[in-house]
Prior knowledge:
Blueprint: H1 2-15, H2 18-38, H3 43-72, H4 76-81, H5 95-101, E1 107-111, E2 118-127, E3 130-135, E4 141-144, E5 149-151, H6 159-182, H7 203-242, H8 293-301
Antiparallel strand pairs: 1-2, 1-5, 2-3, 3-4
Amino acid sequence: MRFLLSFCICSCKYAFIPNAGQTQVMFEAANVRKLLDDDPGNSEYADMEKELVEVISLTEELLATAKQSEDSGVDVLTTVGAYPGFHHTQEPLNMSDLSDKFPVGTKVQAVWSEDGEWYDGTIEAVTPNGYYVCYDGWGNKEEVDPANVRPVQEGVVNALLEAEKEAEATKQAIKRKIAQAAVVDIQSRSLPEKLRIDPNDPEDVKIAKRKKIHAFKSKMRMEQHEVTQNKRQNAWQQFQTSKGRAKKIGFFSGRKRESIFKSPEDPNGKVGVTGSGKGLTDFQKREKHLHLKGANAESGED
């Protein structure tokens, strides 16, 4: 493996020096071919031979390009730079442009390298490779590539928080509606004059008025039912709210209530069984009480 690795290193090195390395690369290719003849099934030797053949082919192209460059006056390094495989240098980032785009202290959104998600953050510094970002609410800091930094998206809100706020607002609105309906009684309305049936009305007009009268009375019944329901609901809510506040005076009023599922003091007691582990109640032995009438009489005579 070391021998094969040396082939690859030498090949890559001499590929940039065509005149010095062409013969060496060809010699290495011949050695690899010999190893492959001895072990035809070795895939590593086959891959190595393929790579060396590509290096030789590329070297020949570089030699031809260098010769043409000498004739035309073009620098050979410029020609080599035209090959993407041999151009590894990266243009440095302009820190001035980065600072103008997102100055230090700017609120941005950046990608966290651990999960690839966007998070709100603050620019703490401008680095040669991008920005040094502190993620708000998390405290994590890291250097982020400029492509992974963007302005804070307007209109992006926490959907869960907004849903909770809307639900709370709806709940409060329902409470206010119930409270208002509890103090307002339904006002009985008489049938409008235009719906009253006149004996002289045509039959089709009478039928239409009867339908409207039925709808009017149904609406009145629904309003009455709604008011009654709102009163009951409001009374129940007030009871639920105030029942824990009122101080009750009476039997067991000062006794602390205990759960039946409390662990018994006796190790042999059972959870959930009232009085388990306490044993039987001790009573004093009942004896007959004798009144000594003679003793009482003597004390009275004295």
